[in-house]
Design goal:
six-stranded antiparallel sheet, 2 domains, about 350 residues, Rossmann fold, alpha/beta, Beta-Lactamase, seven-stranded mixed sheet
């Protein structure tokens, strides 16, 4: 495991979010959102890539990769970090993506998350969605929220993940972490089973399809606090995605369910900072009466304007968050524009303050 160990240690040392092993290019790190080849390393051959991946795969995992052509698993590594690994085939050769997971769970404040996140840790029931593109810190945000619950409340927290990312040590709470493939055979079975496990808080690692979304809604409806992630770009798009996975004849009922249980949708991005590293930017939608009415009546086109006019209760558009980061000198205007959903609104907000 010498060579792969060297690459993984370098990923930790360089504070890289990911390590990529792909035939035809050198081993590559993602640092502050940018891909950087590891210096002085040769282009990977099919044989070298397979040899590197075999160093971290068990015999059972090797067999599953050969049959299924892709495999997710977690890799304990050192006292500093572990890795979430996806091995897969591309152009009939093996490849691997290693996501760095710190062992120390950061706090809400240390991540620069908005103070309103603390209020989510005190809720007894409801549905909170953390959304955004892959690699923009959704899992880290959820881990910070859950660990604050863990530190301050006597709860049973159940997580269902593929694979387990942050490992929690029980503090005030007790925690059950279930990994797909190792601890359960499917999302739908694990979610149905969760209701029999006496949970107070349930984390659904990713809402992937109709079955997982339906089960997560049911858990929230039955008086539990549910957190989940979704790959969507905005709060309004998140509502549409949740509703649209259901058959048309069920969608009115789902809108009603969602309006009853939803507490918040947080859509986040990690933006390259002027001084190096990345800073977090958020769109925050809280389930006020106006938002619940828009969801129930299927008027998601109104959500953006409701968020824009509700800053006094803690809501925030992504553009307002980006503009604040620009004006405080943390990110460049160009970086903000490249991540904005509505660039013209961003420009207005920046120029209004200058």
């Amino acid at each position: 495991m010498d060579k792969i160990k060297e690459y993984l240690e370098l990923a930790i040392e360089r504070n890289a979010s990911d390590l990529h092993l792909i035939v035809g290019v050198p081993p590559t790190l993602r640092v502050d959102g940018q891909l950087v080849p590891i210096p002085n390393e040769p282009v990977l051959t099919p044989e070298a890539t397979e040899r590197l991946l075999k160093e971290v795969l068990t015999a059972e995992q090797l067999e599953r990769l050969s049959v299924n052509k892709e495999l997710d698993f977690s890799l304990p590594f050192s006292e500093k970090a572990r890795f979430r690994v996806n091995t897969y085939t591309q152009k009939r050769t093996w490849a691997g993506a290693f996501r760095t997971i710190p062992l120390n769970i950061p706090s809400i404040d240390s991540l620069g998350l908005p103070p309103i996140m603390h209020t989510f840790t005190t809720l007894r029931q409801g549905f909170i969605l953390i959304t955004g593109p892959t690699g923009h810190g959704k899992s880290t945000t959820l881990a910070a929220i859950l660990d604050e619950i863990n530190a301050n409340r006597k709860c049973h927290i159940v997580t269902i993940e593929d694979p387990i990312e942050f490992v929690f040590n029980s503090r005030q709470s007790i925690i059950s972490q279930r990994e797909m493939g190792l601890d359960t055979h499917s999302w739908s079975i694990a979610l149905r089973s969760a209701l029999r496990e006496d949970p107070d808080v349930v984390l659904v690692g990713e809402m992937r399809d109709y079955e997982t979304i339906a089960a997560a809604l049911t858990i929230a409806e039955t008086g539990h606090l549910v957190f989940a992630t979704l790959h969507t770009n905005s709060a309004a798009q998140t509502i549409d995605r949740v509703v649209d996975v259901f058959p048309e004849e069920q969608q009115d009922q789902v809108k009603l369910q969602l309006s009853n249980v939803l507490e918040a949708v947080i859509s986040q991005r990690l933006i390259p900072a002027l001084k190096g590293g990345r800073v977090v930017s958020h769109e925050i939608m809280l389930a006020t009466t106006a938002i619940k009415t828009a969801i129930r009546e299927g008027k998601t086109h109104q959500i953006d304007s409701i968020i824009q006019t509700s800053s006094e209760v803690g809501m925030n558009t992504l553009e307002a968050s980006l503009a604040e980061l620009v004006l405080s000198g943390k990110i460049s205007v160009d970086a903000a524009k490249s991540y904005a959903i509505r660039p013209e609104q961003l420009s207005r907000l920046i120029h209004r303050q200058i």
